[in-house]
């Protein structure tokens, strides 16, 4: 019985770490993945590098084309999109 009592604090520490650190991080990662998968042509985005531009093309291999100035387009990996500033309405 004493052996179980010694493990209770360790189990409590793990439970606290799970609910305070691991679970919120998983939710944040899932929300980011959903945001990235919902990118459309015309969305204005900010990359993790700080570039602001408009999505001009969504490619199939986890890559998008972002126009950062008139006629200046760069290829960006979808996962490096940090934030979507403005969404476009879906075409009907």
Automatic annotation (TrEMBL):
| InterPro entries (alphabetical) | Preprotein_translocase_YajC
Pfam families documented for this protein:
YajC
Q: What's the protein name? A: Sec translocon accessory complex subunit YajC
Keyword annotations for this protein?
Cell membrane, Membrane, Protein transport, Translocation, Transmembrane, Transmembrane helix, Transport
Q: Where in the cell is it found?
A: Cell membrane
Note the SMART domains from the entry: YajC
Q: What does this protein do?
A: The SecYEG-SecDF-YajC-YidC holo-translocon (HTL) protein secretase/insertase is a supercomplex required for protein secretion, insertion of proteins into membranes, and assembly of membrane protein complexes. While the SecYEG complex is essential for assembly of a number of proteins and complexes, the SecDF-YajC-YidC subcomplex facilitates these functions.
Entry's family note: Belongs to the YajC family.
Tell me the organism's taxonomic lineage: Bacteria, Pseudomonadati, Pseudomonadota, Alphaproteobacteria, Rhodobacterales
Biological source species: Pseudohalocynthiibacter aestuariivivens
Q: How does it sit in the membrane?
A: Single-pass membrane protein
Subunit info here reads: Part of the SecDF-YidC-YajC translocase complex. The SecDF-YidC-YajC translocase forms a supercomplex with SecYEG, called the holo-translocon (HTL).
Could you list the residue ranges that cross the membrane?
Answer: 6-22
């Amino acid at each position: 019985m004493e052996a179980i009592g010694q493990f209770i604090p360790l189990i409590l520490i793990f439970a606290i770490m799970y609910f305070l650190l691991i679970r919120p991080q998983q939710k944040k990662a899932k929300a980011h993945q959903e945001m990235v998968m919902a990118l459309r042509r015309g969305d204005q985005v900010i990359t993790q590098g700080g570039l602001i531009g408009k999505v001009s093309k969504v490619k199939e291999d986890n890559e998008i084309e972002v126009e950062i100035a008139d006629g200046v387009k760069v290829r960006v990996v979808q996962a490096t999109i940090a934030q979507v500033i403005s969404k476009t309405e879906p075409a009907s």
